[in-house]
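Need tokens for this chain, all 136 residues.
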Amino acid sequence: MISALLNILWVVLGGFVMAVGWWLAGLLCAITLIGLPWARSCFVIGRFSLWPFGQEAVNREELSGRGDLGTGPLGLIGNVLWFLVAGWWLAIGHLSSALACFVSIVGIPFGIQHIKLALIALKPVGMTVVPVRSAG
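Here are the structure tokens for all 136 residues:
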């Protein structure tokens, strides 16, 4: 119940803008064949950016206990390429939104969530979004 209320406030107070940013990055990635591996992640994280409370982004290797293509050396290369092309732009957007949220006491939980999303924006490859109760 509380997470639903926080999500509604989040969307109204700026979460929608950053979700659109993620979805635009996903569309740009989907246009090229080279960007297809990142496009799906952009849409998943965009949905997470739209409705973040009650969910958490976790490393797939930590969640499942085994590595995969995105959590190994290719994932590291993917994250470096992502950072250089789009990650830092999305991180700056989330950090700017966080600063705007920190202006008021009511905005502090939203600012903290923007900082978490900024960190995800820097290295999304190898991450997955799960409900909070199953993240640990």
